[in-house]
Structure formats: C-alpha cells, structure tokens
Specification:
single chain, Rossmann fold, Alpha-Beta Plaits, 2 domains, 6-stranded mixed sheet, 4-stranded antiparallel sheet, 25% strand
C-alpha cells in the first residue's frame, strides 16, 4: 500500500495534513506468535492517545515499531508525516521515547544525565546547559540536580526520564507505562506533566496498565487484544459499549414510586428502598425520554443517578478470557 493511503486529517482550510501518527495494517510476529495483526491507527496532533491491553498484548511492540526501534513485518506507518520504513532518521528527530524502564544513569547526577542527553542531540555546550537548566526547573529537580540519580525517588527518576526525553524538543512523545511503580501522589504529578505537554501542542502516545489513567488523560483510547484493536473511541464511547448501565430513581413517596413504576417500562423494582432501576446507556436521549415520561405523569423523583460501566468493565469485556458480556459494535 503506498504511503499516500495513510489516513490524513483535515484542518479548517480543508486541505489534508498528516496525522501525528497513522498506521494501516501494521503487523508483527515473533515466530508463530502474531503480536500485531493488522493495526490501523489515526492519532491527531496535540492529543493523548492511550493503548490498553493485557500483558503481552503487543503494546510495547507497537511503541517500538513506531519509534523505529524494531521493524514491522507489514503495513504502512507514518510518524510526524514521515514513513517509518523509508525515513527513520526523520522520525527519530521528531519524537521522544520514555520506556517502561528508566534510561537514567544512576551513577551520575541529574544534571549530568541532562547534559549527556544534550550532547547526544548535538547541542552546543552553551545551549545544552540552557536547555538542561530550563527542564530541571520545569520538572522541579533543581535542588536534586547535583545529586547522583540513584538517590532519587521513583517519581523523581521518572520526572528526570521525561525531562531527558524533552531535550530534543520532540513534538511526539511515546510514554510506555510511565507511572508503573509510582505512588499515587507521584502518579498524579506525572498526569500534570502530561497535560502540560499536550497544552504545548505535543502529541502523547501512552500505554498504561492503569485504566483510571487512560480515563483521566486520553482523548481517545484503543483496546488491543490478540493482536487486533478490539475497540477504539473516547472513554465515554467505550463505556457505552458494555451492558450494565442504568438510571436509578429514588422516591420517598410510596404513591409516586408506584406511579413511576407503572409509567416506565423495563424497570427493576426495590419496594423496600423505593428505588427503580432502568437499563440505560446514559445518553442524553435516554435521560430525556425517562424524564419526559415522569413529567407527563406528573411524577417527581427525589433522586436520579446515572450509572455507567467504567473502563475496568470495558477492559474485562473486550480482552481474552474475561467477562462473558458481549459488547455492542465497536466505536471507530
């Protein structure tokens, strides 16, 4: 397939422009094990894309291919508008990669790690010191800059790792499970860093084991299972794929409770608690229908709550050997 077949996005002027990351039919196998089996991705610039999947699903393999660390067996991919097969050097010049395992050298100081990275990017000594100082300040590492990195906490090492990734001013960053092993406060600090990067126009390709992290950060999420994209969409779209969502109505007046049960269809009653549960995907259309039925009957509930499946439910339902729930057609 020619590279021109890679999907493009269209800015306001209507002219096509490459997505930050785009793949068509991406494939990779190791022996008789197919890890990626025809993956299509389209990731707009300045967004966070999260790739979820169980261990061994191929998340890290996808990152390694798109960052030119390994080659694909088939398909076409463009990163920053460059074909990863024919222009790997141009791809590398446009990206930064923070892997599962820190690239920080613990035997030298934080500042020396930064300056080493500046040398690798062929910055002059003056420019390297300027960029290093700015990033150490941005990531709140100035006080620890002169200490050996092996003395850093896990969160500090992760911040230094990302600071080193930013030395070359990449517009696309691959973060492969960046918060694994961090305590909750350090994870939240890392989320703030990621949001700040995106606000500056950086595109973030994120793999994570933490579903709340994808829910919190990602503009779009894809679930990878058995080498294929099982579903892709926003967090809310994915949650609506899974049955189990419902609207819960609570009443204090038994007469209003009975009237509502008669006015609404397909309800589950709890006569003791005076609550009704109506299956719903949580959409505005369904909520309006329920409220219109109540208004038409002159009934007012004391409390209305909407319950939707979370990303844990999505993950278990869409990945192998998990829930028997059958999702609706995947959002694309």
């Amino acid at each position: 397939m020619p590279s021109s077949d890679i999907p493009t996005s269209r800015p306001g002027n209507g002219r096509p422009s490459p997505a930050a990351i785009a793949t068509v039919g991406l494939r990779k196998s190791y022996g008789d094990k197919t890890v990626l089996d025809g993956i299509d991705l389209h990731i707009p610039a300045g967004s966070v894309f999260a790739l979820l999947g169980p261990n061994g699903a191929g998340k890290t393999t996808a990152v390694k291919i798109l960052s030119t660390l390994i080659t694909a067996d088939g398909g076409q991919s463009q990163v920053a508008g460059h074909d990863i097969a024919t222009s790997p050097d141009k791809v590398r010049a446009a990206i930064g990669v923070t892997g599962q395992f820190s690239a920080v050298d613990g035997l030298i100081t934080g500042e020396e790690n930064m300056l080493l990275m500046a040398d690798l990017h062929h910055l002059s000594k003056r420019e390297g010191r300027r960029v290093s100082a700015e990033l150490l300040e941005r990531f709140d590492l100035v006080d620890a800059a002169g200490k050996p990195a092996q003395s850093y906490s896990g969160g500090m090492k992760r911040r230094l790792d990302i600071a080193m990734t930013l030395v070359g001013n990449p517009r696309i960053i691959f973060l492969d499970e960046p918060t694994t092993g961090l305590d909750p406060r350090s994870r939240h600090n890392m989320w703030g860093i990621i949001r700040e990067l995106v606000s500056d126009g950086v595109t973030v390709f994120l793999t994570t084991q933490y579903l709340d992290e994808a829910d919190e950060l990602a503009d779009r999420i894809a679930v990878l299972d058995n080498g294929k994209i099982a579903a892709e969409g926003t967090a809310d779209e994915l949650k609506r794929l899974i049955p189990g969502g419902h609207v819960r109505l609570r009443f204090s007046d038994p007469a209003a409770y009975r009237s509502a049960a008669s006015a609404l269809h397909d309800v589950a009653r709890d006569d003791e608690a005076l609550t009704l549960q109506i299956p719903s995907d949580g959409s505005q259309r369904e909520l309006r229908f329920i409220l219109d039925r109540l208004d038409s009957a002159g009934i007012e509930a004391d409390e209305l709550t909407v319950h939707t499946p979370d990303l844990d439910d999505v993950f278990f339902a869409l990945t192998s050997g998990s829930s028997s729930a059958q999702p609706k057609e995947a959002v694309r």
